[in-house]
């Protein structure tokens, strides 16, 4: 009898075939006397749409339909010829009498578990036959790991809780996505896609933009203190409390006078030697945030490049939310470290005397749900391979992951001499404290591989010394918060209650309940962000995320309809999904809770049609007919199109995105984009830089000056 191995993607199927050895290539699969290997193309099946259950035209949405809920969720093969052919091939292979075991070789996560299992079980129902199902779990795609997993296949029952959590998440997302999208869109008379994770993402950006918009800058007096140290250097000391409201200039002047005539005292000098450890190994969110900070990569780009490295067998599975390794992996990691010791890659570092070890502190199985932290694998590239076979982005990311691994495996201690100096000044109204810190790197340790510390020397001070300062009154202005970045949104998804957890006033039981709660998953956040950009709820401006008029209307509608899927509510739903994984709740419990909430929402009779009307603001005046110009999916068009006006500015010109601000510039009196844009592409593929302007005939032209 034979085993049928179903990989999630053709690329993994080819790696499994290569590892097994000689196999005969057939049409869509490979076979030998023990195994048959084939693959899906990602998702082959999709859930029925609501109109499939109702047997209605899928383009027609009506409110009464929202009273219906399916008794059982059903799947259908995607409407794609290649997908349908592949599904039928897998069905044929499962049905073969010489196949007794089906091996789920989906990606080693919740989605991979569900994606392959639903295909297997759907086919079992169709052929009315069941066979043994097993699982292989590939934390990386090296020959060594594939061989080990094929020889030690896991019963599918071992991952049933993960499968149940994945189905519960899928059904819950379907219910909220389908029903709330229809309910809101029918009432608003325009399509407004929504969902369990979309809502808190848009709301987070909306709240920040509202905070910035409502921010009122306040001027205040700030007193700076410059002292001359005994070694001849100057040092500015920031007494944080030396601030006065703008109407209290007399108080500021009085303190300035006191500073001129009274000494600042060194109240304490503390010096100690500190051993610093490297930052933890990367999870996907921490890797995305690192790449955003140091390389300005989007979270989507980091995921895509990390996935490519994984598929090339150089790094472990990227979609992980932990920075720890599972304890049974100790021997595997030790083997990798031993290979690293003899790797020519180490020649790039000045580390002849550095030993590499495997510290126990990296391992904690209790903090690993399904995948360990991201590390390199035993397939270590040569310098030539890294130079010639990797794309530029893959080189960058591989080196970042390698450096973090080496920093954690480094046996030499990183020793820092830390100095903390406390000053005090006894003013007329109160005592003012200030602290400055410095550090000197005594022994590099892990900094050889990942230098995240710098020397910051301080002048020598002794306790009890007195210094007279040169005070100066400055007028300062409070600054508004910054717009949300992708990295910040990613951190919010990962720890939505960070502020609550750090607040000492909150009840400990409440704080413990919120620990570990996240919104969405590390695997899906990048796609969620791209989706809400595409819908038009948010847009990117200067590497930040800002709300659009459509996004504002969307949030206002949710508020008006009492749809409370803000961060706290959505995170609690995620906690319930975790309970399914822990076998504390069932899939049906999740479905019933969602249905009850949806029934409550759709039973309301609230008029929201004016919200979208009010949100649709003109971006300028048509230069041809002087009617308002509005943004739409493809560009910025004249509202007089029904009367024959065809003025239009496309959102893509010569390969470059044209933003709302660009369109407004073209419609302003000067009829010029204010800044030269880089990276336009000609029809021949050549890139060029230019300004855009509106010609007399109202066409868009390039200015190369």
What does this structure look like?
By secondary structure, this protein is an alpha+beta fold. The protein is built from 22 helices and 28 strands. A seven-stranded mixed beta sheet has the order 2-3-4-1-7-8-9. A hairpin with a 3-residue loop joins strand 21 and strand 22. The protein is globular and about 95 Å long. Mean pLDDT is 88; it is low at 509-513.
Short description:
The chain is an alpha+beta fold and 705 residues long. Helix content is 38%, strand content 20%.
Which key phrases capture this entry?
single chain, seven-stranded mixed sheet, four-stranded antiparallel sheet
SSE inventory with pairings:
Layout: E1 2-7, H1 10-20, E2 24-25, E3 30-31, E4 35-39, E5 45-47, H2 50-54, E6 75-77, H3 81-95, E7 99-105, H4 110-127, E8 132-135, H5 143-151, E9 154-155, H6 160-188, H7 198-213, E10 219-228, E11 234-237, E12 243-245, H8 249-261, E13 264-276, H9 284-295, H10 299-311, H11 330-341, H12 383-388, H13 392-409, E14 414-426, E15 431-443, E16 466-467, E17 469-477, H14 486-494, H15 498-502, H16 508-514, H17 525-535, E18 538-541, E19 544-547, H18 549-560, H19 567-581, H20 587-602, H21 609-615, E20 620-621, E21 628-631, E22 635-638, E23 648-650, E24 652-653, E25 656-657, H22 660-667, E26 677-681, E27 687-694, E28 700-703
Parallel strand pairs: 1-4, 1-7, 7-8
Antiparallel strand pairs: 2-3, 3-4, 5-6, 8-9, 10-11, 10-12, 10-17, 13-14, 13-16, 14-15, 18-19, 20-21, 21-22, 22-23, 24-25, 26-27, 27-28
Helix pairs in contact: 1-5, 3-4, 4-6, 6-19, 6-20, 9-10, 9-14, 10-13, 18-21
């Amino acid at each position: 009898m034979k085993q049928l191995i179903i990989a999630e993607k053709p690329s993994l199927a080819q790696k499994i075939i290569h590892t097994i050895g000689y196999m005969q290539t057939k049409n869509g699969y490979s076979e030998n006397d023990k195994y048959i290997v084939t693959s899906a193309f990602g998702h082959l099946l999709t859930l029925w749409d609501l109109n499939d259950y109702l047997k209605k035209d899928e383009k027609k949405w009506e409110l009464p339909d929202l009273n219906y809920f399916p008794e059982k969720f059903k799947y259908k093969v995607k409407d794609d010829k290649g997908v349908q052919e592949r599904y039928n091939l897998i069905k044929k292979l499962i049905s073969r009498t010489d196949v007794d075991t089906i091996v789920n070789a989906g990606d080693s996560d919740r989605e991979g578990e569900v994606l392959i299992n639903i295909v297997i079980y759907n086919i079992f129902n169709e052929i009315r036959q069941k066979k043994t199902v097993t699982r292989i779990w590939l934390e990386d795609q090296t020959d060594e790991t594939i061989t080990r997993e094929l020889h030690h296949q896991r019963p599918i029952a071992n991952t049933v809780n993960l499968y149940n959590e994945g189905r519960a998440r899928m059904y819950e997302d379907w219910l909220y996505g389908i029903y709330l999208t229809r309910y809101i869109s029918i009432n608003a008379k325009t399509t407004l896609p929504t969902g369990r994770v979309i809502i808190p993402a848009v709301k987070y950006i909306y709240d920040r933009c509202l905070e910035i918009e409502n921010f009122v800058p306040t001027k205040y007096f700030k007193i700076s203190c410059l002292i001359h140290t005994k070694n001849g250097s100057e040092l500015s000391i920031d007494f944080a409390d030396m601030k006065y409201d703008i109407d209290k200039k007399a108080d500021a002047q009085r303190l300035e006078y006191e500073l001129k005539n009274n000494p600042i005292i060194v109240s304490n000098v503390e010096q100690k030697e500190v051993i610093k450890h490297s930052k933890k190994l990367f999870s996907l969110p921490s890797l995305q945030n690192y790449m955003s900070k140091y390389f300005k990569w989007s979270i989507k780009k980091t995921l895509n490049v990390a996935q490519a490295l994984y598929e090339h067998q150089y790094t472990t599975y990227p979609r992980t939310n932990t920075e720890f390794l599972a304890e049974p992996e100790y021997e595997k990691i030790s083997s990798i470290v031993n290979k690293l010791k003899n790797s020519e890659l180490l020649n790039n570092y000045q580390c002849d005397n550095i030993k590499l070890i495997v510290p126990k502190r990296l391992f904690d199985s209790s903090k690993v749900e399904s995948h360990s932290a991201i590390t390199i694998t035993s397939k270590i590239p040569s310098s030539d391979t890294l130079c010639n076979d990797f794309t530029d982005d893959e080189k960058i990311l591989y080196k970042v992951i390698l450096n973090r691994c080496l920093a954690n495996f480094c046996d030499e201690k990183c020793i820092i001499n830390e100095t903390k100096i406390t000053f005090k000044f006894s003013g007329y109204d109160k005592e003012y404290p200030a602290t400055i810190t410095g550090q000197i790197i005594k022994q590099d340790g892990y900094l050889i591989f990942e230098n995240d510390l710098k020397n910051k020397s301080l002048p020598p001070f002794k306790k009890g010394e007195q210094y007279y300062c040169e005070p100066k009154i400055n007028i300062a202005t409070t600054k508004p918060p910054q717009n949300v970045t992708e990295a910040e949104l990613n951190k919010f998804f990962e720890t939505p209650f960070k502020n609550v957890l750090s607040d000492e006033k909150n009840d400990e039981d409440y704080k413990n309940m919120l620990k570990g709660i996240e919104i969405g998953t590390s695997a899906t956040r990048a796609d969620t962000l791209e989706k809400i950009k595409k819908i038009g709820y948010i847009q990117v401006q200067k590497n930040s995320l800002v709300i659009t008029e459509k996004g504002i209307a969307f949030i206002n509608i949710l508020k008006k309809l009492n749809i409370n899927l803000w961060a706290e509510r959505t995170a609690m739903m995620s906690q319930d999904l975790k309970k399914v994984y822990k076998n504390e709740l069932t899939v049906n419990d999740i479905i019933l809770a969602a249905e009850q909430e949806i029934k409550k929402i759709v039973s309301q009779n609230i008029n929201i049609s004016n919200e979208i009307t009010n949100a649709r603001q003109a971006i300028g005046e048509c230069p041809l007919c002087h009617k308002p110009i509005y943004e739409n999916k493809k560009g910025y068009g004249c509202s007089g199109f029904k009367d024959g006006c065809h003025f239009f500015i496309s959102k893509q010109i010569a390969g470059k995105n044209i933003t709302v601000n660009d369109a407004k510039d073209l419609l302003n009196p000067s009829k010029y984009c204010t800044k030269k844009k880089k990276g336009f592409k000609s029809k021949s593929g050549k890139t060029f830089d230019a300004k855009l302007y509106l010609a007399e005939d109202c066409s868009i032209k390039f200015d190369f000056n």
